[in-house]
Hints:
Elements lengths: L1 H31 L5 H4 L4 H27 L7 H26 L7 H20 L4 H20 L6
Amino acid sequence: MFTRKLAMSFVIALFALGGFVSVNAQREDNGQHGDWNEHYWHRYNKNQVSQTIKYVETSANGFRRDFSRWLDQSRFDGQTREERFNSKVANFEQATNQLRAEFDRRDSWWETRDNVQQVLDAGRGVQQMMQRQQFPGQLQSEWRRLRYGLNRLATTFRLQQL
């Protein structure tokens, strides 16, 4: 009797596990291929996504300003490194501006997914720079807050976070 109950519990557990694996595989498949998933798309409205993009764009503009100001007073001033650092931050900030412009002119927020990917790619360059160099705490904190917004965008658009 005990063996029969144990066997039955085992069979039920296998079926439950099989259903869980199947559901997760379907979710992963939809995300990997970037398929249009209408159910997912309706989780956010355009205004919610707009607020996140606005936060990222405003933060990127401020970060670029503060970063440039710091570089002008740093030991990197006038060196090739200053130019490389400025270039990474400028490319990132320009990508956020382009994202905002594309987002505003489109009806569907999902259509700007490629622009979000470009922002994230440019952000990875800044992230690597911030990790490799010793920047002041204020710039590090500013970047961490900005990175939080970038990761919210990545999650919203089902892209890899920084």
